[in-house]
Amino acid sequence: MIEIKKLTKIYDNKKVLNNINVDIKTGEIFTVMGPSGTGKSTFIKSIIRLIKPESGEIIIDGRDILKAKKQFEIQSIRRDFGYLFQDSALFDSLNVWENVAFGLKYLTDIKPDKYFDVAREKLELVGLKDIEYKKINELSGGMKKRVALARAIAHNPKYILYDEPTTGLDPISSEKIMNLISEMSEKLGVTSVVVTHDVKLAFTISTRIGMLFGGKFLDVNTPEGIKNSSIKEVKEFVETSFIEVNRGH
Amino acid sequence: MSFITRFISKIGKSTLDISEHLGRATFMIKDVFYWAFKSRLEVDEIYKQTVRIGVDSVGVASLVSLFTGMVLALQTGYTSQNLFNEPLYVGTAVGFSLVKELAPVLTAIVVCGRAGSSVTAEIGTMAVTEQIDALYTLGTNPSSYLLIPRYFAFLIALPVLTVIANIIGIFGGFAVGVVRLGISSTVFIDDIIDFMEVKNFMHGFIKTFLFAFTIATVSCYKGLYTEGGAEGVGKSTTESVVLSMILILVIDYFASSFLVLIGIT
């Protein structure tokens, strides 16, 4: 379980995250939605301290990552996480299987001679076969996302963080990623935190959705609850987003 | 706002900017030392980077040194011929100039232009595409995986390249001295051996470690703090090369003065 209490992040005297309180329950898919520039990426990066907030608590299974003093303590908490970056963030200098197996050396006790097998298994899990030796620049955007997902789950994390997982993808690739997020949750039993402005994704896969506006969660509810929200900003955002989806944007 | 206020505010801003850069660079160096002792050394990466920074630079560093040695011999030979009617002490001039100054400085400049720029561009691209953040999420950090191997590579490669440059440069001078100026090969070699001592070689050799540390620090720092996409990477790379070159020349002067002071002349 991730408990977030009074989380505040300030950039240039502006509170990007303003006293946020939310609990992310074990096994759920928690999606953070909201307009651009409302602090969605800052929120997800704060969870594993890629960004250090000014104040607040982020308690992961009883350990507060913001209170961890030494790098080793932070690393030991991060060990429980997999992170899918917006632009995949794959290492260009390595091939596909080396990318997938990269974290095994640091995050697991698996012997190096097993790395390739683990990488192949995880690639199969995301629906990719026979691309182990391909270079990253030979892959399409959708394939890159799936390789990045295979890398994020290679060390069997308890939590997966998805930063805009469908941004920049065609509808078919988006659908595949959407199904994969649900599958990862069901097959691996992981807790997922998804940051997105893709309403279709949010309303299809989420257990709960948090609507982030101006650095605050205005509403945290089930997809149905968010659709019927009485909060003006949430209502407007959802309605506008659905109109755009129906128009084919 | 008056001219004076604007001027003072500009100086203040520049001072703050410089302090910020120095502070960040100091923290980066501190991190490099910390992780060098705390984490497993990435031996494969050190090897890969040493090949990339060192072995791949042998050709261009040798070429630069070869022609430097040749032109030194030519200029010294003709000057002394004009003054004394024969080319005197050409070997001595070529040997001392190369070993103490030209080979270390020129090799450092070649390495900074060739390898330092590539290190900045590579780390800079990683920074703007979140690959640096990815390192943290995969259980390592940029210091252990990126910076330490590159520091090691520069510190291993540059001294070795400088020794190679010394040999090639002296050979270039020797070839011009013997073939073009008609100096006997024994005289040329004796001119070097009779006057040169180990401390003369050490004077240049010690400086290569300072240059290597400088290039590694500047190129890694500029890469790590790159912002703003492809344009930012280009800007960081240019700044990295320019700053490294300036620092090499400044450090060369002060290091030479210090070495002379402690008797390593």
Structural topology:
The complex is a heterodimer of chains A (249) and B (265).
Chain A: E1 2-11, E2 14-24, E3 29-33, H1 40-47, E4 55-60, E5 63-64, H2 71-78, E6 81-84, H3 96-101, H4 104-107, H5 115-125, H6 141-153, E7 159-163, H7 171-188, E8 191-195, H8 199-205, E9 208-213, E10 216-221, H9 223-227, H10 232-247
Parallel strand pairs in A: 3-8, 3-9, 6-7, 7-8
Antiparallel strand pairs in A: 1-2, 1-4, 4-5, 9-10
Chain B: H1 3-38, H2 43-53, H3 58-84, H4 90-128, H5 131-137, H6 142-180, H7 185-193, H8 198-224, H9 229-261
Helix pairs in contact in B: 1-6, 2-6, 3-4, 3-6, 4-6, 4-7, 4-8, 4-9, 6-8, 8-9
Order of helices and strands of chain A: EEEHEEHEHHHHEHEHEEHH
Q: Percentage of helical residues of chain B?
A: over 70%
Discrete helix count of chain B:
9
* Sequence stretches where pLDDT stays below 50 over 5 or more residues of chain B: none
Tally of DSSP β-strands of chain B: 0
The secondary structure category of chain A is alpha/beta
Number of structural units classed as domains of chain B: 1
How can the largest sheet of chain A be summarized?
6 strands, mixed
Arithmetic mean pLDDT of chain B: 96
Strand content of chain B: under 5%
Explain what this protein looks like in three dimensions.
The complex is a heterodimer of chains A (249) and B (265). With 249 residues, chain A is of the alpha/beta class. Chain A folds into 2 domains: 2-80 and 157-247, Rossmann fold, CATH 3.40.50.300; 90-156, no CATH class. Helix content of chain A is 39%, strand content 24%. Chain A is built from 10 helices and 10 strands. Chain A has helices spanning 40-47, 71-78, 96-101, 104-107, 115-125, 141-153, 171-188, 199-205, 223-227, 232-247, and strands at residues 2-11, 14-24, 29-33, 55-60, 63-64, 81-84, 159-163, 191-195, 208-213, 216-221. Chain A has a 6-stranded mixed beta sheet, sandwiched between helices. In chain A, strands 2-1-4-5 form a 4-stranded antiparallel beta sheet, with helices on one face. In chain A, a hairpin with a 2-residue loop joins strand 1 and strand 2 (14-24). Chain A is globular, with a radius of gyration of 18 Å. Chain A starts with a strand and ends with a helix. The model of chain A has no long low-confidence stretch (mean pLDDT 91). Chain B has 265 residues and is mainly α. Chain B has one domain (42-261). Chain B is built from 9 helices and no strands. In chain B, helix 4 (90-128) packs antiparallel against helix 6 and helix 4 runs parallel beside helix 8 (198-224). Chain B is globular and about 65 Å long. The termini of chain B are far apart.
